[in-house]
Design a protein that fits this description.
Layout lengths: L2 H6 L5 H10 L4 H19 L2 E4 L1 H16 L11 E5 L26 H8 L3 E6 L11 E2 L3 E2 L15 H8 L5 E6 L5 H7 L2 E4 L18 H6 L1 E6 L2 H11 L24 E4 L10 H16 L4 E2 L6 H23 L5 H11 L7 H23 L2 E6 L15 H7 L1 H9 L3 E9 L2 E8 L5 H15 L11
Parallel strand pairs: 2-3, 2-6, 9-10, 9-11
Antiparallel strand pairs: 1-3, 4-5, 6-8, 7-8, 7-12, 11-13, 12-13
Length: 470
Amino acid sequence: MTTNEHTQIWRRGAAELAAGICTGELSAREVVDAHLDRIAAVNGALNAVTLVLAEEAGAAADRADRAITDGNPLRPLHGVPFSVKENIDLAGSATTQGVPALASAIPSDDAPHVRRLRAAGAIPIARTNCPDFGIGWHTTSTLHGATRNPWNPRVTPGGSSGGEAAAIATGMSPLGVGGDLSGSLRWPASCCGVAALKPTLGRIPRAAMQEPAEQPISLQLMLTEGPLARRVADLRVALPVMSGQDWRDPWSVSVSEHLGAGVQRPRIALLPDPSPGGTSPEVQRVVRDIGTAMAEAEYVVEEIEPPGIEQAATVWLDILKSDMSLTVEEMQPPWGSEQGTFVERLFALAEPPSATRVLAAYVARARLQRAWGEFFDAGRVIVAPVYGARPFAAQDSLTDVAGTFARMSITTACNALGLPAVAVPGGLVDGLPIGVQVIGRRFSEEMCLDVAEVIESCAGVATPIDPRHV
């Protein structure tokens, strides 16, 4: 293989790489080495990758190639590299949560979905940066510092899966694993111009492999983990691999991959301004352009919104504050000043927790789940912005927490109600990617992926890119 051909390997998506290895066009070692070379070439400008698993990945690639030579059956992601956010367990490397106190916290086993990716033949190649304990809409950690956006280093890459999104956007990894409590998969994907899947609660099992294994009820109900990639097709390959019931996650369920089979083409509920008056004209224009393209693709498009978007975001905050405030008081988590300030300003937006208020929040959550279920039962999916403005400047990440929360309301609502959503690039504003998301009823991931793929075909794939300098 020529040098030029070698450098092009990292441009391919996960599904394309798996196909190339399967046919013998590529070896797993060539694929891994190409991505290791790409990390060495560009990570210095971004600080997205925090740990390179070069020796382990190389050995795994050699084993994958020997399996092919020996005629063993090939697996869905045979020889394909993937990266893992630093607050998700990967056996053999520390789950640092971005803080020095956990720099040596090495789990004994993989998180359930990470184990499944390995079982499908995928090869861990790197760990990626996240803010302390995955808290915040900008990625800067006490342990590793700030990750920079490859489109503009002065702009946030998003958080908390900002390291993953930046790595995937620049070809350091074709597939990544991150988490989403309030857009932490979809917001970085939007900022960096890649795709991400936030699954329904329980679709992809998640569990900590070291103490404390049991998390507060707010995280059990509203935090999910899922894949990031440059193409929707790669999310589609990763979903069935990562999904399914696992005893370590009591919320996990088994769902037929064909749940959406035979369902008629959904109606598009277009939400250009899900926070009334809070979405910038430029972002509204991106969403309306997508709506026009969907109509031209013969979808029925209507501007109609589900009930109680802002109330759902308020419920999210009340539930999160109710038990996280107690956790903070009892544990004194070793996060940095950035996260401490963020939590203080975010929780200032909610009333002090009380038994009455907390119970009311859970009742309101159930009522909203029913109301949104009825909305989706009319054959709809929602297409909305991930965030109501272009990505903010990295230095302003704590300047307007209240405004950021408001502009993230539709995204946060998905977490409050346990709904699936697929983020995909929708267009550019001032040279920065703007993501849109497809939101559906519970366990309708395949339908959301179908619609996201149509959007992708209209808007185009924005990455991989070389890091840009301003």
